[in-house]
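job 3f2a | input accepted
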Amino acid sequence: MKVLNHVVRNMDQNVYIYFDENTKEGVIIDPGNDAEVIMEMVEKNGIDIKAMLLTHGHSDHIGAIPKIREKYNWPVGAHRWEVPVLADEEANLSEMMGLTHTMTPDIIFNDGDTFKFNNCTLKVIHTPGHTQGGVCYFDAENKVLFSGDSLFYSSVGRTDFPNPPMKDGIGYPSYENTDRLLGAIQTKLFVLPDETKVYTGHGNSTNIGFEKKYNPFVKG
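job 3f2a | predicted structure (220 res):
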């Protein structure tokens, strides 16, 4: 498996293309912006994209999708609790940026679901807190985790953003954000193998062992 990374410089957001070098099947994780660059990377490397997977629905992680979909009909996957975030311009922060990004995902995940392409299986790990439907994607065979804005190098995601109103049992009050995020990191991410490579939503990559030992925001 190979990881290609493009950094969207306006917010230093990491776009990842994860693919099998032999079969060329792969996924795009968090296509935040620079649609033309992302498509050029895919085309240059001959990658057969099976889906665009979202760790969460904030505007800086979804901004390239409309332009990409003008050319490609690649499905979008997100956690079911992120559906109202993607549909709400205030909750997905596009309104704050003077944008109007809203969408409905084609693939709806629950915690523990998997997305398979070729010989790769990505497990969906629900890590709410930065957003209510935030997730990480874990490839157990290759010990690779895409953590979005849940876990960073020596840091964690912000938890002061608003949640959309609770509806049909989906969501939780914003004051629970911090406890939920730190709890999810401790119980769901820090139990992964120490050598697991962590590709973060912003900034440098890291690994689980390092974060368990040195992350000042959450105890391993």
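job 3f2a | DSSP finds six helices and 14 strands in the chain.
job 3f2a | closed
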